[in-house]
Structures are given as C-alpha cells and as structure tokens.
C-alpha cells in the first residue's frame, strides 16, 4: 500500500509540471510533454509549430520560437505574428535574426532565446 501511495504522489507531481501560456489572439504555448505552439479557434486547438519547441519569446503581437529538428537542417526558427496569423519559418539563423530585428526585437532579447 505504501508503494501505491508513493507511485500516486509521483504521478501527481508529474502532472503538475504541465501548463499552458496564453500568447494572445487565440495562440498558446503548450507544455504537455511535447512543447508546441497552438491556436484555438471555435474551441478547437490546432498545432501551429509542431514538435519540440526549445524556447520562445513574446513581444507585443510577435512570438519568436526555436526548435531543434531531429533531421537536417537541425535548428528551425520561427517568427509568428499573432495579429495577422502570419508564420515565417527559417533554417538560416542570420535570416531569422534579421527578420526578428525588423519586428523590434533587440540583441539582448534575442540572446535570451538561445539560453
């Protein structure tokens, strides 16, 4: 019985680590074992950036996301405009950084994304 109680405690502790962060305009960051960016429309959730999102950064209506893909090209970078529903995907970090700076992200903010 003691082992069952301990197993239940670990199960509850594991479930409490799951969470969702509102990114605005129906978008959210979902941490449910496989981190992803989703959009909910009419009560239905769809993954916008699927797979493991390593890190993200939100500023105003813009969300930057970094993802390590298991197959080449390796890292993928995203710029999501939640106001216009525009999603840009990059495989070249320099192109991603240039786009992010056009939307007002600073070098200091972009450094936080890589940590």
TrEMBL record:
Q: Which domain of life is it from?
A: Bacteria
This protein is called what?
A: Lipoprotein
Q: What species is given as this protein's source? A: Thiothrix lacustris
Q: What are the top taxonomic ranks of the organism?
A: Bacteria, Pseudomonadati, Pseudomonadota, Gammaproteobacteria, Thiotrichales
């Amino acid at each position: 019985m003691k082992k069952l109680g301990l197993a239940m405690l670990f199960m509850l502790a594991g479930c409490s680590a799951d969470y969702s962060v509102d990114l605005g305009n129906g978008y959210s960051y979902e941490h449910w074992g496989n981190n992803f960016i989703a959009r909910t429309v009419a009560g239905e959730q769809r993954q916008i950036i699927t797979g493991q999102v390593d890190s993200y950064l939100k500023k105003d209506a813009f969300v930057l996301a970094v993802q390590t893909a298991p197959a080449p090209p390796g890292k993928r970078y995203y710029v999501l405009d939640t106001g216009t529903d525009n999603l840009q995907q990059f495989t070249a970090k320099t192109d991603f950084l240039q786009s992010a700076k056009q939307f007002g992200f600073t070098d200091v903010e972009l450094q936080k994304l890589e940590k």
